[in-house]
Specification:
Helices cover about 30% and strands about 15% of the residues. The protein is α+β, with helices and mostly antiparallel strands. The chain folds into 2 domains: about 80 residues, Ubiquitin-like (UB roll); about 80 residues, [2Fe-2S]-binding domain (DNA polymerase, domain 1, Orthogonal Bundle), CATH 1.10.150. It has a 5-stranded mixed sheet with strand order 2-1-5-3-4, covered by helices on one side. Helix 2 crosses helix 5 and helix 3 crosses helix 5. The chain starts with 18 loop residues before the first strand and ends in a 5-residue tail after the last helix.
Length: about 180
């Protein structure tokens, strides 16, 4: 399930803070950054760190294109304040990989099942699926469908996406899970 509400960093109301120093680990690299109080994790990732795999879609938490993993949970980065990521580990699509730098089983399954068309939604869907499979290594097809309900694909690849995640679930549960987060 995606976290879709703004979280207020320690220190009071968002409006009271002008800037905050955030120490965060993104894709295994530690950063110490100064951010404005209202800066979202999406803005930090895309605009400050130039990691553009995380997409800006609706900016309201409805499409899932901005999904990243924060301490094991899928979150909508457009609604998650960067200040709240202080001390947390964040994984973007750039940080997801399999053994020896190869593709993660989810990424390979998306290719194998032709679950990618334009590719805009793909990073968010893959990361939502990754967080879900980490918590539910033996899901039902219905559980996969529910877990990905917050991620929209306008190209209509939903059935292929579900098949890809189902396939990857078998690989992950058999120990072929990538070393990357």
């Amino acid at each position: 399930m995606l976290i879709t509400r703004f979280k207020i960093a320690e220190g009071g109301d968002v409006g009271e803070m002008k800037t905050k120093t955030v120490e965060v680990e993104i894709n295994g690299t530690r950063y110490r950054l100064r951010v404005k109080a209202k800066t979202t994790l999406l803005e930090l990732i895309r605009d400050q760190l130039k990691l553009t795999g995380t997409k800006r879609g609706c900016d309201t938490g409805d499409c899932g294109a901005c999904t990243v993993i924060v301490d094991g949970k899928a979150v909508n980065a457009c609604l998650y304040l960067a200040a709240h990521a202080h001390g947390e580990k964040v994984t973007t699509i750039e940080g997801l990989q399999g053994d020896g730098g190869s593709l993660h089983p989810l990424q390979q399954a998306f290719i194998d099942h032709y679950a990618v068309q334009c590719g805009f939604c793909t990073p968010g869907i893959i990361l939502a699926a990754k967080a879900f499979l980490d918590e539910n290594p033996h899901p039902t097809r219905e559980a996969i469908r529910q877990a990905l309900a917050g991620n929209l694909c306008r190209c209509g690849t939903h059935n292929r996406v579900l098949e890809a995640v189902w396939d990857a679930a078998g690989q992950v549960s058999q120990g072929k899970k990538g070393e990357g987060t």
